[in-house]
Write a structure and sequence with these properties.
The chain contains 11 helices and 15 strands. The model has no long low-confidence stretch (mean pLDDT 87). The chain has 3 domains: 70 residues, Arc Repressor Mutant, subunit A (Orthogonal Bundle); 136 residues, 3-Layer(aba) Sandwich (Rossmann fold), CATH 3.40.50; 137 residues, Response regulator (Rossmann fold, 3-Layer(aba) Sandwich). The termini are far apart. It has a 6-stranded parallel β-sheet, with helices on both faces. It is α/β, with parallel strands linked by helices. Helix 6 links the parallel strand 6 and strand 7. The protein is elongated and about 85 Å long. 36% of the residues are buried. InterPro entries: LacI/GalR-like_sensor, Peripla_BP_I, Tscrpt_reg_HTH_GntR, WH-like_DNA-bd_sf, WH_DNA-bd_sf. Keywords: DNA-binding, Transcription, Transcription regulation. This is GntR family transcriptional regulator. It holds the Pfam family Peripla_BP_3.
Length: 362
């Protein structure tokens, strides 16, 4: 029977190799891109370890993209030694037929930003395989990149739940998250309070005295009611509906859900609708507008609408001149995300409050 202490030498050797990898990485950064490093034998003597340990360490550094070995020539510092390697992780499928263009716009903005700043950029769709729905699932490519140290930072969006968030953070790689349902450092928050304030002001300016809400999270209702109370607006609960959240209703169904919510609102109130509706998602608003027209109501006239929208998206194009839109700019969001990530990479243990992004009323 193996001794309970039989794994101790292996663990010690693994720690030693990790130390060697870190020390050679520091040396490579000191030498600078393109410079030639000492030979394997010289490194072995320098660090007091075997040639095989140095060889394994160099292999790890090659995987990380920090060095390159040329047969018959030597070991060289990679030209990408100072290049930050950023991974953009989506926890849900953003390419479905009913998915909001917001996340595709976000991905494009990340690519453009990384190109401008000479950062290595990778994209990961961290969704379970067909037939699997594990909360603790991480796609193999992403797990390999995290385990091998090929990522210096993570930008995460549309994370499925807090458990997945915690699992990604467990790798110790600095991470920022665009989310309204997780906690921890590096949060980027689309200011919901400000969205509701702007929405109420827009409806007041158009003379609306009764206002309803259609949202995608229970939290939307909480903020809506809080802002309404502060403004002295009496809310009819029959005009307020919110979905239970993305764990229960997939975001690629929001357009269909918008149609169903509008029909429910109409039937529940016998065709009597509020003068104004606040809608907290562009795909939800698309479904609402389509169903209103199907019911014979005039969008923007019979019911005034203010909706969240995304700069560069044509989701609400057919009704844009009849709606009040609070627009979010993916370029602005990405700049905030990268700035927060850079701050975390420099001071990973420094607590930081959520970074706030506000929409702009068109």
């Amino acid at each position: 029977m193996p001794s309970p202490h039989s794994s101790a030498p292996q663990a010690k050797a693994s720690r030693k190799q990790t130390q060697i990898v870190e020390q050679i990485a520091i040396m490579a950064r000191e030498y600078g891109a393109g410079m030639k490093l000492p030979t394997i034998v010289e490194l072995s003597k320098m660090f007091g370890v075997t040639v095989s340990t140095i060889d394994r360490s160099l292999g790890r550094l090659e995987e990380m993209g920090l060095i390159r070995r040329k047969r018959g020539s030597g070991i060289y510092v990679s030209s990408r030694i100072d290049q930050k390697r950023i991974g953009l992780v989506f926890g849900r499928n953003i390419f479905g037929a009913g998915s909001s263009p917001f996340y595709r716009l976000l991905m494009q903005a990340c690519e453009q930003r990384a190109l401008r700043h000479n950062e290595a950029f990778s994209f990961y769709l961290n969704t379970p395989l067909l037939g699997r729905d594990e909360d603790d699932y991480i796609h193999q490519d992403l797990e390999d990149a995290l385990s091998s140290g090929r990522l210096d930072g993570i930008i995460a969006a549309n994370i499925r739940n807090p458990k997945q968030d915690r699992l990604l953070r467990s790798y110790g790689v600095p991470m920022v998250v665009l989310s309204q349902s997780t906690s921890g450092y590096g949060l980027i928050d689309l200011d919901m309070e400000d969205f509701m304030e702007q929405s109420f002001r827009a409806m007041e300016a158009r003379g609306a005295r009764s206002v309803g809400l259609l949202g995608t999270l229970p939290l939307h209702q909480e903020v809506f009611e809080r802002v309404a109370r502060a403004k002295g607006v009496v809310i009819n609960p029959d005009w307020v509906q919110c979905l239970p959240g993305p764990d229960f209703v997939s975001p690629d169904r929001y357009e269909a859900e918008g149609r169903a919510m509008m029909l429910s609102l109409y039937e529940k109130n016998a065709g009597r609708l509020p003068e104004a509706l606040i809608i907290k998602d562009d795909m939800l608003a698309r479904g609402v507008c389509a169903e209103m027209e199907h019911l014979g109501a005039a969008v923007g006239k019979d019911v005034k609408i203010v909706s969240q929208s995304n700069k560069g998206s044509d989701t609400l194009y057919d009704w844009a001149n009849r709606l009040n839109l609070i627009e979010y700019d993916s370029q602005e969001i990405v700049e905030v995300m990268f700035s927060e990530l850079e701050a975390l990479m420099e001071e990973p243990d420094e607590p930081r409050p959520p970074a706030i992004v506000r929409g702009h009323l068109k």
